[in-house]
């Protein structure tokens, strides 16, 4: 580690730094794997102790209660497994669910790398999705024109929405955590209002449902109509590659990361911190906007309703942490969370376990990733890797 | 804004000669006053409906003093308000108001609201006392959230997890309250808040987890857990979602004071408790040894450590104890209100509480004042629907959130957090 300027880095070293993988692959994966297993175990415990009928049974017939508990936990996890990777259909569902998660996860990750905590992906998804939606049902053009047009709209919508928070941060010092959360609520109400306006509302409806987008704006399905995974997934992979290039191969990305690690140093090096803060937030918002476009263009009924953002913007935070804010890491984490979501749907449908369990498991994963000492103490393992998240965000100060 | 001292933490000012933030703010305020004056004149004074009188009811049917009303001509009032606002703008731009700037801003806002309410209620009767009572009730959980944040940040721990603490406490209050009665429910809610506070403290103090991430984790966990349990337990067992509520306890004689009696002295223990907490925390923070030590830990932990204050112990103690307050506020959402738990029922109240803390400049009475402003915005949204104004309800719903952004963006002046806020303390 004599050289920190990147001049004499070997390819391997550079790759290891860029991806967080490499020589100590085993130890890099150890904590996340144990975190996942522990979170699943605790999730099982939560399923076990929240079945009210079975809890009542413990007094009368502990043996029966025990076997029923084991049955329901086992059943839940079998459904989770089968719904995520148990068949080609399940795999398609996993990729389908992973698509917006990867895009939104990249959004949060870009922010983290630049020292900004974008909790507002949810709102940016809404605004990006609404923009894509509007273009999708007003413009009549072949898919080759219309799809890119919608995506550009989503990028601009999400980017501008997040850019507001960036501008406020850079100019007034208003912390992005508070402003982006408030922008989430504002975006939701704005969408609610728009969906009921004559501009968006499906004719003949009184509830907030928009007109459907033109057929040529719908994402084509990659493996035919039996599998729901669309070209949106390829878009997500492309975005990950793009973010990788932006952050590690371009000079703008270098400035982003410099601002993130030391804003003062960046300022003295002559970087325009105000512009960079806005640019980082806008980039982040643009990615979230793409996730919003996917929610409109990538799945039936191809129209806007009040809940199309579906909490993806919040899952994205967990995902970015799990992926250590690296593009490749976010893709893997997105696939894992996509599997959890797809499996969770099956679990809810077949075993009647609310899908919110997936949310709990995700929160537990972040805790263990952020505090690896917990995991290490639990399993008595030691590993070279284990800095945890450290201090990613700054306090209230600008 | 009378001096041109270069702030040490903004090096750009040292390089370029330009307006200080205070000067810039004064100029912006001046233009805002002009803008408001024009707005009031165009939308409220010139509007056709403004020719009809607006009536504001100041008493409720059950009050001792009946039929108190305030009636005025909205157009006349709007014109007067517009003139005053324009004068304020001129003075702001030429002389400035110095240390009165915030008081003037507050008065200008109040005048604007008077003109707005007059316009909205033109040709109608509007229960002002009903709205003010709603304002006070709605500010209770916000105040509790703000006080929680304040207690944590005074020892330099940023608590973003207040939202999760409130939500969890609201849930625990409902289910425990349904099984064991509302007092045990309240106790359980406070305990659950404290437990989450302790978890936050362990994560950030012992494991040095980024404070904001630790708080967000608590929020995600709380939302997932309460939604999960709400579907799985409350959905199939509705008897667990029906706790007794804390009914209003009237305070004799005081309750008969017009308007104020309804707002303050005919309420449930959550309002009384919150007001007592504000006073206690103020005395505690600024007039006791505990307060001095807390503030020392928040401003300069190393110095505090040097003189023998146990930094970690103070942080554990305050963050956990603050959780009790969050639990109290969360219980108010169910036991002090509808008596039912709904998924994600906090809807950002915890975050608004944090904004109230910043707005209130990390002082208990400031938090209360800021929370009342947010309560006012919410109360207005609830009661304006009855009047049928042309403003879409969604925009009224946005108001508290827009207000929060304006507040943290420092329109009310930059507030200074405790110096060590957000930084872990690692002993050498």
Could you explain the architecture of this structure?
- The complex is a heterodimer of chains A (398) and B (428).
- With 398 residues, chain A is mainly α.
- Chain A has helices at residues 11-19, 25-49, 52-60, 62-85, 88-113, 121-138, 143-172, 176-196, 231-249, 251-261, 263-268, 273-297, 312-322, 327-351, 356-370, 372-379.
- The longest helix of chain A is centred in the middle third of the chain and has 30 residues, at 143-172.
- The relative contact order of chain A is 0.18.
- By secondary structure, chain B is mainly alpha-helical.
- Chain B is built from 16 helices and 5 strands.
- Chain B starts with 10 loop residues before the first helix and ends in a 20-residue tail after the last helix.
- Chains A and B meet through α8, α11, α13 and α15 of A and α8, α14 and α16 of B.
Calculate the mean pLDDT score of chain A and round it: 85
- In helices, the fraction of residues of chain B equals 55-70%
Uncertain stretches of chain A: 1-23
Number of strands of chain A: 0
Nearest-angstrom radius of gyration of chain A?
Answer: 22 Å
Strand content of chain A: under 5%
SSE order of chain B = HHEEHHEHHHHEHEHHHHHHH
Biggest sheet layout of chain B: 3 strands, mixed
- Alpha-carbon distance between the two ends of chain A: 31 Å
**What ranges of chain B have pLDDT less than 50 throughout 5 or more consecutive residues?**
1-16
- Identify the most extensive interface between protein chains: A-B, 56 and 53 residues
- Oligomerization state of this entry? heterodimer
What is the count of β-strands of chain B? 5
Rg of chain B, alpha carbons: 23 Å
């Amino acid at each position: 580690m004599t050289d920190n300027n990147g001049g004499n880095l070997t390819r391997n070293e550079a790759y290891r730094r860029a991806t967080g993988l490499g020589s100590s692959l085993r130890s890099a994966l150890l904590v996340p794997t144990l975190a996942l297993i522990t979170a699943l175990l605790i999730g099982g415990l939560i399923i076990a102790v929240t079945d009210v009928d079975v809890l009542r049974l413990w007094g009368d017939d502990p043996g029966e209660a025990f076997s029923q508990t084991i049955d329901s936990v086992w059943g839940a996890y079998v459904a989770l497994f089968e719904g995520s990777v148990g068949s080609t259909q399940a795999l398609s569902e996993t990729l389908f669910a992973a698509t917006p998660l990867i895009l939104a996860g990249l959004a949060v990750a870009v922010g983290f790398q630049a020292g900004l905590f974008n909790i507002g992906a949810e709102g940016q998804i809404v605004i990006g999705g609404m923009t894509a939606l509007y273009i999708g049902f007003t413009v009549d053009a072949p898919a080759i024109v219309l799809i890119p047009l919608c995506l550009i709209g989503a990028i601009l919508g999400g980017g501008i929405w997040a850019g507001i928070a960036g501008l406020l941060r850079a100019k007034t010092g208003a912390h992005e955590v508070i402003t982006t959360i408030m922008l989430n609520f504002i975006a939701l109400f704005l969408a609610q209002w728009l969906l009921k306006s004559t501009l968006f509302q499906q004719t003949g409806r009184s509830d907030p449902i928009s007109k459907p987008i033109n057929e040529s704006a719908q994402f084509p399905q990659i493996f035919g109509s039996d599998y729901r995974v669309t070209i949106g997934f390829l878009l997500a992979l492309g975005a990950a590659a793009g973010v990788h290039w932006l952050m590690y191969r371009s000079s703008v990305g270098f400035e982003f990361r410099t601002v993130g690690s030391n804003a003062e140093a960046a300022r003295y090096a002559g970087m325009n911190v105000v512009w960079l803060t806005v640019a980082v937030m806008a980039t982040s918002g643009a990615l979230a906007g793409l996730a919003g476009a996917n929610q409109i263009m990538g799945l039936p009924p191809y129209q806007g309703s009040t809940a199309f953002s579906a909490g993806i913007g919040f899952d994205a935070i967990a995902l970015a942490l799990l992926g250590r804010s690296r593009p490749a890491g976010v893709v893997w984490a997105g696939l894992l969370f996509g599997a959890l979501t797809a499996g969770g749907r099956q679990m809810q449908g077949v075993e009647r376990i609310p899908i919110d369990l997936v949310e709990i498991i995700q929160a537990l994963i972040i805790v263990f990733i952020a505090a690896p000492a917990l995991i290490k103490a639990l399993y008595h393992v030691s590993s070279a890797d284990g800095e945890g998240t450290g201090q990613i965000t700054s306090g209230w100060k600008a | 804004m009378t001096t041109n001292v270069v702030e040490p933490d903004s090096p750009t000012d040292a390089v370029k000669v330009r307006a200080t933030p205070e000067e810039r703010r004064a100029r912006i305020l001046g233009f805002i006053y002009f803008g408001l004056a024009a707005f009031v004149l165009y939308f409220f004074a010139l509007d056709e409906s403004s020719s009809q009188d607006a009536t504001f009811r100041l008493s409720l049917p059950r009050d001792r003093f009946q039929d108190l009303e305030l009636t005025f001509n909205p157009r006349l009032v709007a014109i007067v308000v517009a003139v005053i606002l324009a004068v304020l703008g001129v003075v702001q731009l030429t002389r400035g108001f110095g240390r009165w700037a915030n008081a003037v801003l507050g008065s200008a806002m109040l005048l604007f609201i008077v003109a707005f309410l007059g316009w909205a209620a033109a040709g109608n009767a509007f229960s002002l006392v009903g709205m003010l009572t709603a304002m006070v009730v709605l500010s209770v959980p916000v105040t509790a959230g703000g006080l929680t944040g304040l207690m944590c940040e005074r020892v330099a721990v940023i608590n973003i997890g207040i939202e999760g603490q409130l939500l969890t406490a609201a849930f625990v209050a409902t289910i425990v309250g349904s099984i064991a009665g509302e007092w045990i429910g309240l106790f359980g809610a406070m305990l659950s808040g404290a437990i989450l506070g302790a978890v936050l403290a362990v994560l950030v103090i012992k494991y040095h987890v980024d404070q904001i991430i630790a708080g967000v984790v608590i929020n995600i966990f709380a939302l997932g857990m309460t939604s999960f349990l709400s579907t799985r337990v409350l959905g199939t067992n509705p008897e667990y979602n029906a706790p007794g509520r804390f009914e209003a306890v009237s305070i004799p004689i005081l309750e008969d004071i017009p308007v104020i009696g309804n707002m303050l002295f005919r309420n449930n223990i959550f309002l009384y408790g919150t007001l007592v907490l504000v006073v206690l925390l103020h005395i505690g923070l600024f007039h006791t040894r505990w307060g001095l030590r807390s503030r020392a830990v928040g401003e300069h932990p190393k110095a505090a450590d040097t003189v023998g204050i146990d930094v970690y112990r103070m942080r554990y103690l305050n963050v956990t104890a603050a959780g009790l307050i969050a639990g109290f506020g969360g219980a108010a959402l169910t036991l002090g209100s509808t008596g039912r738990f709904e998924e994600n029922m906090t809807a950002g109240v915890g975050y608004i509480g944090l904004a109230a803390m910043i707005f209130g400049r990390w002082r208990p009475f400031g938090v209360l004042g800021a929370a009342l402003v947010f309560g006012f915005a919410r109360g207005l949204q609830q009661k304006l629907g009855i009047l049928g104004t042309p403003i879409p309800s969604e925009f009224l719903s946005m108001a508290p959130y827009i207000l929060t952004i304006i507040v943290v963006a420092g329109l009310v002046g930059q507030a200074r957090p405790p110096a060590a806020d957000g930084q872990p303390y690692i002993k050498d």
